[in-house]
Amino acid sequence: MDVNSWEKDEYNAFVLLYAAYADGELNEDEIAFIESLVGPEKAQAMDRFGSKLSDYECLSIIEDLRERHYPGEEGKQNLLDELKELFRTDGKYSQIEREILHTLRRVL
Predict the structure, then answer these.
(1) What whole-number distance in Å separates Cα of residue 26 and Cα of residue 106?
(2) Which of 7, 56, 87, 101 has the smallest set of CB atoms within 10 Å of its CB?
(3) DSSP string for residues in 46-65
């Protein structure tokens, strides 16, 4: 898959799925949230693609494409806000999720 041809919703799905899996589980609320933003087909395609990559490869893609899809500080903050919303979908915002958000904030 050519990541340079991704549209914003594909990038968004990829980032959200990466973050959702980072605590070791992807629950139904997180899936529903991601699918509500990008649709089930794109969410599933990005899930299949991301599952074949290492953390390093995922983080590199996230970092390399962020400015194109979420430009500037405002774009970065919008993406971080979506990540926070994702983490709160199950009613919990765990310490692991806080650490993941902190790491992604530095990467972005």
Answers:
(1) 23
(2) 56
(3) HHHHHTTS-HHHHHHHHHHH
CA 42 vs CA 11, 25, 73, 107: distances in Å: 10, 19, 26, 24
Cα 94 from chain centroid (whole Å): 17
Q: Does the predicted TM-score (pTM) go above 0.90?
A: yes
CA separation, residue 39 to residues 30, 36, 82, 101 (Å): 13, 6, 16, 23
Please say whether the beta carbons of 42 and 10 come within 8 A. Answer: yes
Q: Is the pLDDT of residue 92 over 90?
A: no
DSSP three-state, residue 80:
helix
